[in-house]
Each structure stands twice: as structure tokens, then as C-alpha cells.
Specification:
The chain is mainly alpha-helical and 72 residues long. It has one domain (2-66). Helix content is 58%, strand content 0%. The chain has three helices and no strands. It is extended, with a radius of gyration of 16 Å. The model has no long low-confidence stretch (mean pLDDT 86).
């Protein structure tokens, strides 16, 4: 559900540039495909945001795993 919602948000940002301030909410807008293919340097803010979000979500995943219902 989250994947579909963020993809749709990315598509809406492409169709309506006036809402481009929301591009931080969708990972599909962190890196421009053309820039990646041309091997130009990515936006440093988006790189930092990606690392921070990935780290935070990994920590939350492991904390949630510790509190699981099943005892194996």
C-alpha cells in the first residue's frame, strides 16, 4: 500500500510541478533517473535523507522484531 501511494505521489508531482515541494515524501523522486544514467552527482540532501531514513527504518524493524508474538 505504501509503495503504491508513494509511486502515485511521484506521478502527481510529475503532472503538477507546483506540488514539487512534496518530493521528499516519495523515494521515487530522491534521485533523477537521467542523472543516474549520465553518472552526474546526486543531490547531497537526498543522499543524506536516504541514509537517515534507511537507518531509522532498519532500527524500527529490528525493534519491532524483538517484540514479536511468536517464540521460536
Amino acid at each position: 500500500m505504501i509503495l503504491v501511494a508513494t509511486y502515485l505521489l511521484g506521478s502527481l508531482i510529475d503532472m503538477f510541478p507546483e506540488i514539487s515541494f512534496l518530493k521528499g515524501l516519495t523515494p521515487f523522486k530522491y534521485f533523477n533517473t537521467v542523472d543516474v544514467l549520465n553518472q552526474t552527482s546526486p543531490d547531497p540532501l537526498m543522499v543524506v535523507l536516504t541514509v537517515v531514513l534507511a537507518s531509522l527504518l532498519c532500527i524500527l524493524t529490528f525493534k519491532g522484531y524483538e517484540k514479536r508474538d511468536m517464540n521460536i
